[in-house]
């Protein structure tokens, strides 16, 4: 099923004019991911290289030369060992990471819907036997998916509300307008609504949880610097990003969607580990 | 051009019944690569994880459950800084790594020819404008490619002969039958010709150098152990491979072909760095 998902995703993206980039797995700077300490680092040639946590900054730089890009990007995130039981966490996973120059949130939101609708159609068509074996009834998806602003979802469900939304939903649901502070500095703040971000998450139904994360990006150097400082991060750690922004980053929007979580949802599997032959589960040793 | 190459490779492999696996980038054990010390290692969850140097052992294990597999596998090999000027080395690159259960060398050699012929055809068709811009005349390829046994090439060209073969060749050339000792322990020794391996390299013409490496595999536990010991390696470092072999690994053959080197050859580029937006060249610092 995984290879059908990969092919279906590429098929749609190629039709829409996207160019596939080879992934970056070592970089001087990577996604800060809300302050979690990064222990996945190696030293080589007199420099520290982070294992990629997402290709966010490389995507922003890539759309200066190519309008629409995607990559199947292996990410390493050394999550707490307890998260190994969540069913949703691998410390090595693959993210379909894409970005579109001069797009806004509505553009990539609609792209996300087309992408999921297409993948579900292909999986229903090509993996009918596998779905039957798994006892999985996978219905067609219909766009547009409902959108709930973060503040509304929070008021309705209180803390951990993505899980509540996911458990009650009949189909995928967008959560939009995250507040500054709960998200990374690169999500763009709405100029007309200070404190509110032009970003989104997609949540799978039936408790499968978060599907994708994305939005518009901060791309102007003074805005990036402001956001880095308001997050309490060290701007010198993001010097090369700021230099790229001063040299000129275009406005852009995009998202990243985890492949193993997508296949878990499509197949109705209890744990993402079942998607991989050699799963990397937080806290679990591996032989091979 | 890179995305055309990726699509063309997948197109042929899917037609021939191959299943795409997600890549493994962290593993307790990875390709020894002729004794070079591995400094690309991280610690997590009480275990050491090597950044993948090739998916060789994972491919051998994967064909126990799937007959034909491939993966676009990011590899990290911290080569000496001087190699940065070779034109052929990146310390992070992507390898199309494939394996076929119960195949022999002739099977994968012919597959390699079909794959290259198909990719060249697609690039000539879809990248005609780009080839013209690059001033690159890329002719059709015709299989079979010539095969030269290692001992014969060595006698004719002496040391560093792959470069000589590559510079003089009019088209891709196979070098076959490497001797034990110049290759890794997992290349299968010919039972009827002790000391000779059932393996091969493909060399590009016009000095573009090595294209792919592959062959049949040692899969029986006593043979693997014998080869590890003859290479002077520590068998305890390969305990999980030996355990997998004792549990039963099928015979198989396969190869890995570097994508950046392939695109460099197709485009006639002076250095593999030009294939990547964020090249990782040995000895060179990077900003992003």
Topology:
Two copies of one chain form a homodimer.
Chain A: H1 2-15, E1 19-20, E2 26-27, E3 41-44, E4 47-51, H2 56-62, E5 68-76, E6 92-101, H3 105-126, H4 128-133, E7 147-149, H5 150-157, H6 161-168, E8 173-176, E9 199-204, E10 209-216, H7 221-230, H8 239-248, E11 252-258, H9 259-267
Parallel strand pairs in A: 1-5, 7-8
Antiparallel strand pairs in A: 2-4, 3-4, 5-6, 6-11, 8-9, 9-10, 10-11
Describe the structure.
- The first copy, chain A, has helices at residues 2-15, 56-62, 105-126, 128-133, 150-157, 161-168, 221-230, 239-248, 259-267; strands at 19-20, 26-27, 41-44, 47-51, 68-76, 92-101, 147-149, 173-176, 199-204, 209-216, 252-258.
- By secondary structure, chain A is α+β, with helices and mostly antiparallel strands.
- In chain A, a hairpin with a 2-residue loop joins strand 3 (41-44) and strand 4 (47-51).
- The longest helix of chain A is centred in the middle third of the chain and has 22 residues, at 105-126.
- The mean pLDDT of chain A is 96.
- Chains A and B meet through helix 1, strand 1, strand 2, strand 3 and helix 2 of A and helix 1, strand 1, strand 2, strand 3 and helix 2 of B.
